[in-house]
Design a protein that fits this description.
A: flat, B: about 575 residues, Rossmann fold
Chain lengths: ~280, ~575
């Protein structure tokens, strides 16, 4: 089953696995802010490389993330195409310069500036998504909950989030089983089927998936209440890790990156790095 | 005089959502240190009774209460769920669903976490309880990856860590294989003895519960107390039969042999059921054996040749060079411990998984190139959980789905669906929404929706799990009827009674291998096979051995064929 399991926590022994969950969460949040606010291509390029290297260090395998990555690629492409369709010359306005590659049809021109702007958008995905995946794959959900709790989120919400993450593999498993059952009923979802039929087949999985998930939720919430979850204002965490020196280093470096990102605002005279001037 | 810890007096309860009260005029007193079993058919109100004890009623499930229930010294109306959890520890029915912690250790510690106990203390308690329940080596594992028995021990540890004076078990044996069920009862008995805990169990597998002593059995039927007595007295009465609860097989055998049950001492303890008189009566019992059944030469339908499968190369193989045959028109049972590879076998046959080695043949032809859908035209697979199969809102639509997708003409669909609904006893409900059905009825809907495709072979995964004796009997008679109409049936089950009474051939699996392929009687009277397959020797065989009958195996055979005749009349 582990072959199919995706996006859940994979236990491991790398440096990244052993970091404190809170440190990793703070790193993820702070670095995401740094990458999301800036359009400095140099910074984004460096961060993309760093993200991918970190994935490598954590020994994340391609098959663990391939499904999600493909999913994200489809959506980001969709996003980029929409950005182009709505404002084909947005880049021109941003960079105050217009270098036409192809005049195109009507308003749909292709300019270097627009391409550069969209390239920056793609880079942002490259910076943040690997980090988010890294966090999900290397952080024990219980420890994650305790980290959220530690940075000030209510423990009820923290636990709900952790449970949701924990159930991702289970729900994927359910999804798979239900999909097989539907195929046995006659939805041809193997490669022998036509695309429309395959899409319809997937839609049929949703209802049984919701029912089986509702079953799960009911049982687990009863079990939790019977063992006094939610009675007190605070709770302790069995899985909480002590804070170590390397965790402070991680948090420190995250804030350094944020500082660099903000410093670049000042240097570039705005959020955008402009090579056209 | 012992102190009463649970007492219901003139208690009635009605859920807000229902018109009729679920519990009526309940009067029960359970004393400190007692071990009490509550039995009753589905819908009798036994789960509602459990909810009154552990505090879910009236705190979570609201309704109208009359009379009083006192737990410890408190009225249930005045105590919160929080306070109650210190008095009553509940082990829920669904072991998989009730695991909250990611690892065994966290799950055991969950209650302490909620109490805000400091980490070092928590670790100490977890280790203490883990060692008491032999879980020390499993602390860092995911609870879901454990075996059925280990899972139960984890959930018990998580409850015992509070040392509650009362332990409540809601169907602790559901989904456990027979051997694990026995171990479970031993653990409960050990806790009962060493910690003097009051134990309340709700379970309908009476015979399995009685492998350890119980002080008292309370029978509930339609919301009222029908009996509150000792196991011996209950077994010698007719109450079980009237309430549709299965009595232990050996008791049925004694009845067939014309023994007056009131004369038998210690009837509930099989090891003590032995005396001269019984031996004479049972040896004298010699019903006409039905020898008219000629063994037909049957054509091969499905054949597996040295099939191997593992989820990945590193792990051990789940199926290891397994070969077996299923012939046309047979009703075969597939048994073995949890994790023996039974479900994997079904999935391979249906094409959900692909074998790494070996061949699967259908009527002698290679099956590998057929897609899941193509195989589904020949093999119908009914999964254990009906919620994973149902995708439409209305019963008619659900059953018609497979035909609609195969572009069958609407008029023919209507004919075939209505016909199947008749056979499955669902015709009166044809225009109902599925959400209005009970679990057992949903299960029938899934069977109907598979049958309508007219497969040659029907594979059922635990068709009777979670159903009481009445529904179980209905379901099995229905399957037997289908079998007589020519359908071949393979049933995956943990239920030894089912295997013995309804199937003609049994396949025993263990660790991915086929241990035996023989008659159910031969399986359950062979101690080595019973042990290797985590099965349980049938109580008939135990009884025959205890009484030193000359030929125990033929005694079991006689019983089975006689019992079939009685049932078919």
């Amino acid at each position: 089953m582990t072959e199919r399991q995706m996006l859940g926590y994979f236990p491991g022994e790398t440096v990244i696995h052993r970091l404190n969950g809170t440190a990793k969460l703070v790193f993820l949040l702070v670095v995401s802010i740094a990458c999301m606010t800036t359009y400095d291509t140099r910074f984004l390029l460096v961060m993309s490389v760093v993200s991918v290297v970190l994935l490598k260090i954590a020994q994340v395998k391609w098959h663990q993330i391939s499904f999600v990555v493909r999913f994200i690629i489809v959506f980001s492409l969709l996003n980029i195409v929409t950005v182009y369709l709505f404002a084909p010359e947005y880049g021109v306005a941003l960079y105050h310069s217009r270098t036409v590659i192809w005049e195109g049809i009507g308003r749909f021109t292709i300019t270097q500036e627009e391409l550069f702007y969209e390239f920056n958008l793609i880079l942002k995905y490259f910076c943040t998504i690997p980090l988010a995946l890294l966090f999900l794959l290397t952080t024990n959900p219980s420890e994650f909950a305790s980290s959220l709790n530690r940075i000030g989120v209510s423990y009820r919400i923290s636990y709900a989030v952790a449970l949701a993450i924990r159930y991702i593999p289970d729900i994927q498993e359910d999804f798979h089983t239900i999909s097989l059952a539907q195929q046995a009923r006659g939805y041809e979802m193997s490669r022998k089927g036509r695309l429309m039929q395959r899409i319809k087949g997937v839609a049929q999985i949703v209802l049984p998936l919701i029912f089986s998930s509702l079953d799960r939720i009911e049982t687990i919430s009863t079990a939790m209440e019977l063992r006094r979850f939610g009675e007190k204002k605070t709770r302790t965490w069995y899985a909480q890790q002590p804070f170590q020196k390397k965790d402070s280093v991680v948090i420190g470096s995250a804030f350094c990156l944020l500082a660099i990102s903000f410093g670049l605002f000042y240097l570039n005279g705005g959020r955008f790095y402009n090579p056209f001037q | 005089m012992k102190k009463p810890v649970i007492s219901f007096s003139d208690f009635s309860f009605k859920y807000h959502s229902q018109a009729e009260p679920t519990l009526k005029n309940i009067n029960i007193t359970i004393y400190e240190g007692e071990k009490v079993l509550i039995v009753g058919p589905s819908g009798s109100g036994k789960s509602t009774l459990a909810k009154c004890i552990n505090g879910l009623i009236p705190q979570i499930f609201e309704g109208e209460l009359q009379g009083t229930v006192t737990i410890g010294e408190q009225d249930i109306r005045n105590s919160s769920l929080f306070e109650r959890s210190f008095d009553v520890g509940t082990v829920l029915q669904d072991t998989d669903g009730q695991f909250i912690g990611l690892t065994v250790a966290e799950d055991i510690a969950f209650a302490l976490e909620n109490d805000g106990v400091a980490q070092p203390q928590m670790q100490a308690s977890v280790h203490t309880w883990a060692s008491k329940l032999e879980l020390e080596t499993l602390l860092t594992q995911r609870p879901q990856e454990l075996s059925g028995g280990q899972k139960q021990r984890v959930s018990i540890a998580g409850v015992l860590i509070d040392t509650p004076p009362i332990l409540l078990f809601d169907e602790p044996l559901a989904n456990l294989d027979p051997k694990t069920s026995c171990e479970m009862m031993e653990i409960i008995e050990k806790i009962h003895q060493t910690m003097a805990t009051t134990i309340v169990m709700i379970e309908h597998r009476l015979e399995d519960v009685l492998c350890e002593a119980v002080d008292r059995i309370i029978v509930i039927g339609e919301g009222e107390i029908v009996a509150d007595t000792t196991p011996d007295q209950l077994l010698s009465s007719n109450i079980l039969k009237e309430q549709g609860i299965r009595e232990p097989l050996y008791v049925t055998a004694l009845k067939y042999a014309g023994v007056n049950l009131c004369d038998v001492q210690h009837l509930a303890d099989l090891t003590k059921v032995k005396d001269e008189m019984l031996m004479k009566k049972l040896s004298a019992w010699n019903p006409q054996k039905d020898l008219s059944k000629t063994i037909l030469q049957r054509a091969e339908l499905l054949q597996l040749e040295e099939v191997s499968f593992g989820y990945n190369r590193k792990n051990a193989k789940i199926l290891n060079q397994l070969s077996l045959k299923i012939n046309r028109g047979e009703m075969v049972s597939l048994v073995g411990n949890n994790g023996a590879g039974k479900s994997t076998l079904c999935k391979l046959v249906c094409g959900f998984l692909q074998p790494q080695q070996g061949r699967i043949l259908w009527e002698g032809a290679e099956f590998a190139c057929n897609s899941i859908k193509e195989r589904a035209d020949k093999i119908g697979y009914v999964m254990q959980n009906p919620n994973q199969m149902i995708s439409k809102k209305m019963i008619f639509e659900e059953v018609a789905l497979g035909l609609t997708l195969r572009s069958v003409a609407p008029a023919e669909i209507e004919d075939r669906v209505l016909n199947i609904l008749q056979i499955c006893g669902l015709y009166p409900y044809r225009n109902w929404p599925i959400s209005a059905l009970s679990y057992g009825q949903k299960k029938r809907v899934t069977i109907a929706s598979i049958l309508v495709l007219e497969p040659d072979l029907l594979i059922l995964d635990e068709p009777t799990a979670g159903q009481d004796f009445k529904h179980y009997t209905e379901m099995m008679l229905f399957l037997e009827k289908l079998n007589r109409l020519g359908l071949s049936i393979l049933i995956v089950t943990h239920d030894m009674h089912l295997m013995l009474e309804y199937t003609t051939r049994a396949l025993v699996m263990s660790e991915g291998k086929l241990l035996a392929d023989t008659t159910p009687v031969a399986v359950l009277t062979n101690p080595q096979l019973v042990k290797a397959g985590s099965l349980k020797e049938t109580s008939l065989f135990t009884l025959a051995n205890n009484l030193q009958l000359p030929d125990p195996v033929s005694f079991v055979e006689k019983f089975v064929s006689y019992d079939r005749e009685v049932r078919f009349k």
